Amino acid sequence: MIPLQTPVSPSDPADRDLLRLADHCVKCGLCLPHCPTYAQTRHEADSPRGRIALIQGWVTGELEMSNTLARHLDGCLTCRACEQACPSLVAVGRLMDGVKARRVARLPVWRRALRRRWLSVLSDARLTALLGRLAGRYRVSGLAGWMERIGLARRRWLVPYHRLATAMGAAARPMVADDRPAADLDLFVGCMGSSAQGAAIAATLRVCERLGLRVRIPSGSACCGALMRHNGYADEADRLRAGCVQRHAGRTLVGLASACIAELREDSALRETLEVCDFLDRAVWPASLKLRPLPRRVLVHEPCTHRHLPGGNAAVYRLLARVPELEVIPLPGNDTCCGAAGTYLLQQPAMAAALLRDKLASLADLKPDILVTTNPGCALHLAAGIREAGLTVAVCHPVELIL
């Protein structure tokens, strides 16, 4: 039986804030059909309603933080599909981020520091660029194939890192900063720019040049803070986002990665940050600019973070509609997370792989030439799955198909 009320009030103000958020849930269950993890396990504790009940029990002291409880809470993708169906408007994403922050705060100092270091590597543009170059060598040197042949790549702890490295090795491209003071827009490339979206950056620069737009890419690209926030390090996330405010406030800011844009827009100074397809769709296109025909079938993957942005993915479809002879189709099941979810694909590889299978089945059935997505994590996750499934589908950012 799921408790409908929590009679014990916590003494810690942060816990009281979590309880106030959780108590908005009326346990109606309308969220259940929309939760990807519940659809996989059919376990109440893997549903939004169930997780909120567990949080209420933990915050009020009725439940201890056991391995089982942690497993159910950590299984949340924070995709926020449940929020769209919730009549009580429960802020599940904010609640889950808050719970992670409280759990991190109660970790031993050494574990907290170790996790922060791991996340710092993933959110440092210089280090991810280096990882991208190393991943490229891992892929082309034959080491990745050798690891697969001898079975090491199938070791449980190594599987997600091997998958990510092979996909990143194919996607990594060098990126050149352009700190020009006078520009029409700042291009936010974040911490994964050269390691996962180098081709998209180059394509954006080409299109903007044809549209007569000057682009500024500040040197020393910074992380937006999303990875830190969704892993429980809210203070570090706030610090990183404040750096972005200092760097870009008062300028037209355009981003390539939907998750970064969602994080940046949470700050009032960056509330007008635009996704690149939305920005290009709004731009003035000269009548003389003719796009080359591209007779290909394209499926559009809609990342969870992009579906929650104002206007959703509509601009992606409008931008692609400018390309002559391009057949554009939404990927079936776009309302369900692909399983990437930031660092989730590394932390919960079994569930991430299970959620990916439905996407791969649709690709095998519809046989597109190209799959486009605006999230680099989703792109790497999907590309790795496509490779393993033996499908011949290219994965890229929508802007790469323009011009």
From TrEMBL:
Q: Which InterPro entries match?
A: 4Fe4S_Fe-S-bd (IPR017896), 4Fe4S_Fe_S_CS (IPR017900), Cys_rich_dom (IPR004017), Glc_ox_4Fe-4S (IPR012257), Helical_ferredxn (IPR009051)
> What is a single Pfam family found in this protein's UniProt entry?
Fer4_8
Going by the UniProt record, its keywords in alphabetical order are:
4Fe-4S, Electron transport, Iron, Iron-sulfur, Metal-binding, Repeat, Transport
Keyword Nucleus included in the entry's annotation = no
What cofactor does this chain's UniProt record say it requires? Answer: [4Fe-4S] cluster
Question: What is a single molecular function from GO for this protein?
Answer: glycolate dehydrogenase activity
- For whether the record's keyword set contains Flavoprotein, the answer is no
Provide the catalytic activity annotation: glycolate + A = glyoxylate + AH2; (R)-lactate + A = pyruvate + AH2
Positions of the 4Fe-4S ferredoxin-type domain:
16-45, 67-98
Described by its record, this protein's role is as follows: Component of a complex that catalyzes the oxidation of glycolate to glyoxylate.
Give the protein's recorded name. Glycolate oxidase iron-sulfur subunit
Source organism of this protein record: Thiobaca trueperi
